[in-house]
Amino acid sequence: MGIDFSYEFYVHRRDADVFLAEVAKLCDPELSRLTTILLPSGTSMTMPGTYGFIGDRAIELEVAAADRMGRSFDLSLSFPVDGPLRDYDDEEPGPRVTVGYIYLSVSDDHTILPDHLRFDFMPATTGQSRLFLMSPSVRETFATLALTTGTTLCLLDTEMASHIVVTALGQRLSTRVPGPLLLWSRQVKAAEAFRELSSLLAGNPVHPPKWIIGPAHPDFPAFVESLADYAKVPPDRWLAP
Q: Per residue in 9-22, pLDDT tens?
């Protein structure tokens, strides 16, 4: 079993076409196999890559969101080069490094936000998952994607007891690498955690905090230790002191 970190984007259905258009801009433009996505707005767009490893066909986004067969869009995404990406690339990298496969799944089977779709970016290998945690370029790229497409909530799922909150309600949170982290406990109904997070961002934090965990929370050190041990990445590579 490898490491399966993923970035989760909670996107309102009305913004799905904008979101996917920006994702397409991140894809490797040299891919020859394409997928046509039929959008809820009645329009369509072309995504470089395949769906379920089959290319050159049309996929309805709403049908994909309701699919429980585990199929996904199979993408190769390009990121501005940084130290971790330079170490990852076997060849001498140029200004950007392409990482693939990165699987993009879409789902509507969640209860955090009504009328939203959840898009999950999951890399194919453990090494790529580590990049999701420790690459400043990767986290900044995904944060920018969230902030420029109206994404309500972006989380980094580390397979631990808490997610890392990357952006929420148009605000940057845990984006810098290394940098401070704000965590989202998975041990509660997601809608309740989102209400607590919304209150925090509005300047009305819950005292004491229950499900949104910052560095002063008693559960924070254990999270850091567990994640560092699981990912085999020292905390100073992704967490500011």
A: 999 999 999 999 99
Residue 99 in contact with residue 79, Cβ under 8 Å? Answer: yes
Per-residue CA distances from 96 to 47, 50, 141, 159 (Å)? 19, 22, 12, 28
- Parallel, antiparallel, or unpaired: how do β-strands 153-157 and 162-168 relate? antiparallel
**Cβ proximity of 123 and 129 under 8 Å:** yes
Half-sphere exposure (Cβ direction) of 173: Cα atoms closer than 13 Å:
26
Kindly report, residue by residue over 41-53, the tens digit of the pLDDT. 889 999 999 999 9
Three-class SS of residue 34? Answer: strand
119/133 Cα distance (integer angstroms)? 18
Q: Which helix (H) or strand (E) segment is 118 a member of?
A: strand 116-123
- Amino acid of residue 179: G
This prediction has a pTM of 0.95
Distance CA 10, CA 30 (A): 29
